[in-house]
Amino acid sequence: MALPDSVTTCLSQPVHYVICKLGFEKTDTYDINNILSGNGEVRWQAVTEHVCYLESDQSVDYIKSIRSLGPVCESVNLYFKSLTKEQFVIQYASWFHWTNCTEVFLEVFDVLQYTQATDVALGLMKLTSCLERSLGDVCLLKANDCPFLLRDLLASEQLADVFGQAVMNVLRVFIGSPHGLNLRNVLWHGFASPQEIPAKYCAMLLFLTAGLGQLLQTYLMQTKGVLVHRPYVIFISLEELDAFPDLNNEILSIAEELVKLSSFVLKMMLPFWIAALTAFKESRYADSVILLLPQLEVGLRLLFTTSNKCPNRLLTAESSALYTTFDEMLAKHLDNEEVNQLPVVLEEPAMASDFLWDFLNHQEGPRIRDRLSHGEINLETFPKEVASQIVGFAITILCRFSDEDIKEHVVIKPLMNCASCYRSRFHPISRLKKQVLECVKSIHLWPELPAVPEEQVQKIKGLEGNAEADTLILMICEIVSQLQHYMPQNCCSSDDPINSVLTERLLVELCDTRICTLYSPRPVLEVVVVLRRISAQCHQVSQQVIAGAGLRYTQWVNKTLRSRQRHNYRRMLNSIKFLSPVLRLILLLITLELVSVHSVCKKNPFDYQQYLKFLKSILQYAENLVTYTSPEKNKWDETVELTKKTLIKLRKMNDRKLMLMHLAT
């Protein structure tokens, strides 16, 4: 698809005027001493006097306020340029401690000294994310939670109580309000090029942050309060994020050439791309990702607006409209219910969308953009593993919109192969598969559990010869035989259907079945929610059995079990014989139903409410099992009866062909 190469700005005319011109209309020189005391403290009253208000409703008049504050910002910028780093640290470093990331603000001061446009933009993005996080911590001094959106946070009563409403109105002129400069959003969403962000606004926000620290110190002294910082989000299971191979210098060198050739890159944004790759090579992984994410967004927005024939949506929206952001670009339909054409123009639509959903949107994924932009991640310890995936993905997108020959380059081809094979890791369906495999691994540990030799276990009245257990196992065999039609061929032995079918190998094979997770219908997601709850309960049962069996064996050997406990332990050992195949049968059913659910929804509507009722009855059984097998209850006789009733129900449901796998065939 041909992309326009004539785009010179992504700021609409009114927004461009507000950011690039409005604050420069007043050219008079402003005396820094008006807003700065002799000991370096901010004279807030003098600052707030520059905020203007509408006569109609006394709300902030953003246009007049920006115009009035323009010379003040310039004065602050020149003042900071006049300071040495040592002077700045002595005068201001302590006022940034409340942010819990003083070094970020000291770096911003360094950037202001030489005013490299790309670095100023990066500094502003880091400053605003850290400031937002810190303001949220302050909000929690007076509330149990804080708003997720910056604009709501700045408008909160709690911050007005601590800092004063007039002070918060000053901040809203610069960030948080779509009527003001809105610097955070235009940068984090990729609308502003490096040259379009005046350095003096970065300097002013640095100045205001120090002033907030001064006000907060006074407030905490008066109230005897203590500011507590919320812990940073820590990425765990980094191996789950591993989609692309390591990026060596040769790949990065090719990437540096690609950004100059790919039609995915808007020319005025090129400095951001080069800076991102440079940051990665210099092991500044947070900086690299902070720079890249907005560029991926603006590049995809270009594709989105071109493919959907809505070129006006490439520009920043006005305060009365919404930005075209990742959420909308990744949606199945547009606002007018027409099909979104963006996935169509991507050569691997599922791959690109799945990757972006995984890393940015899915609740159980890393949600990198949200967490970075809201200050939830420690920038100093941002993991290379995460940055590598974002950079690797970006390179594959650059390739898709470059000369065909580059895709076959010996260095690039492994990246492209990984991209084409990508499967979602954090969609609810993918998480269910992971749960099932983790649960079956746990159950397969049961044969290794320490157990009293059979000859030492006395018979219990009513269970001689394990009659009840044998009956349940026969019922399981019958159900397994009924399910053979829906399983891979040659996986069942008539001599031993349980151990030949209810295996980890079969579940791995079934879970490896590729299921389209993109745009899953609501009925599918509702079914998956219940299936995940069932799987989680089964896993808990397994963990309780493992813990309980180990404890009871130790107590048996040490002869510390009372008579009743010994009888209960023998009931447990008897129950384990049928519980293992029962749980494996449930996991098999979950997997078969999961494989079937998409095809059923595509083929024909079905009464999924009735089906959910059936699933919830299985969930109820699993929840009861958790209770009965807990160390507090140990109700093994009740477990036998409960399992018998459930197997009868399963057999009847199978006979009536009400399960999804029947509808799918």
From TrEMBL:
Pfam family, one: DUF4209
Record's protein name: EMARD protein
Domain DUF4209 residue range list: 140-211
Superkingdom, natural source: Eukaryota
Membrane spanning stretches: none
